[in-house]
Design goal:
The chain is an alpha/beta fold. The protein has six helices and three strands. Strands 1-2-3 form a three-stranded parallel β-sheet. The longest helix is centred in the last third of the chain and has 20 residues. The chain is globular and about 55 Å long.
Length: 137
Amino acid sequence: LVSDLLKTAITKGNERYSAISLVDNIPVILAWSNDSNFDNIFSEQIKNHISKNDVLIGFSGSGKSQNILNAFTVGKKQSAICIGITRMGGGKFPKICDVSFIVPSNDMLIIESVHLTLCHCIVSSIRHKGKPLFTYD
């Protein structure tokens, strides 16, 4: 998703977006998990980056991953828009997120495939702001 946001989402007017992945920096993840707690690996990174009206997107197979929930808690405190993407039931995402995409399945292969499709839909929506995504001739 971050790769698509940084490259594919660039529009003809050359509008660009800022995006980071909190799973890309293994030394930072290890430092926070060793020195603090694995549940804080994302929330502590978020504190360095998040601002009001930023969009924070989190993925969890259960909607109950504490490290993701902690990141959303920090995001909400900074008035970020929190989007959770998860599976049937939604876990705690519907209560903490502004928007929850809940895949109606418990099959992780299906869930992950739909998550990927949602990511592509998000990027397509950005590229086509205000224009129809599909046209029929």
